[in-house]
Design a protein that fits this description.
By secondary structure, this protein is α+β, with helices and mostly antiparallel strands. It has 13 helices and five strands. The protein has helices at residues 2-20, 25-39, 60-66, 75-86, 106-112, 127-144, 152-162, 164-170, 177-193, 206-215, 237-246, 256-259, 329-334, and strands spanning 276-279, 291-297, 300-303, 312-315, 321-325.
Length: 339
Amino acid sequence: MGDGWTMRKMWVGAGVAVASGMGFVMLLVVGVYLVAGNLAGGAGGGAKKLAKGSVPAAYQPIVQRWGNLCPAINPALLAAQLYQESGFNPKARSAAAAQGIAQFIPGTWATHGIDGDGDGDRDVWDPADAIPSAASYDCSLASYVKDVPGDPTENMLASYNAGAYAVIKYQGVPPYKETQNYVKVITTLEKSFAAPAGRVDPSEQAAGAIAYAQKKLGTPYLWGGNGTADQGGRFDCSGLTKAAYESVGIKLPRVANDQYNAGPHPGRDELLPGDLVFFSDDLTNSRAIRHVGIYVGGGYMIDAPRTGAVIRFDPVDTPDYFGATRVTEDGAKALPTTV
């Protein structure tokens, strides 16, 4: 407790340095690594509630309810599957004829689609049917492999990807690279949709990302800017955060609302330097996020705010503050590239 409080005071002091334009980030570079050492292994898990706004408001009650259908799933896991499959797009259609928010192929829908809202039909394009059907299908798969040793959720996910027969045959997640990757991706993404049950571990790469962003202070904003030479080294908001984390070996998606899913979500009073902070005009829907910056401590972030401005320090405590993400390497790798 004492060390953590000392570090928090250091960051508050750093906030004063922001206002005076001093080069304080080197303190943060040291501080982030000290905190990483002090807090390692302190994260909680097992959350059953969704993180604020992680699922669009129209679908959140359905996901929360049906995500508790059986012990093998939970709302955050179900949300991770829907995000991975369609990015919560109820009109999504794949080249393999998968349809709707849960991406059912017609044959699977014919067998496992249910009338989730009780209106007398089963409509794959209606999230009120498709989301309950996805949960029901997950639970059916879990029941098929309930006697297989190992983690029931991982066995269910492996069945979803490779079929229950393969899980039974190998008595657990089969040795297929695609299936093992699918299990890891969904269980990792689950953390970005769950409300943390405890303290979230700091990222060791955070200090490097801050140092990168600090070097870009004063650079003019460019819509769509990725910092390339042909763009004069200019960035927009998510281009800056993407480049900052890429400088420390973490590849983020290009747009801010997908960057929100690159890790768990600390509360406002738990922010650490390096956390991504997000802003939106709709505080109930992470898909509506329109701006992102990198938190540096003391209530400030480095961001590329808008056309006509430069990369600079800005306060995070504004009415459109949405929330934060503590970027993890696994979380970034788990993000789909097609949503």
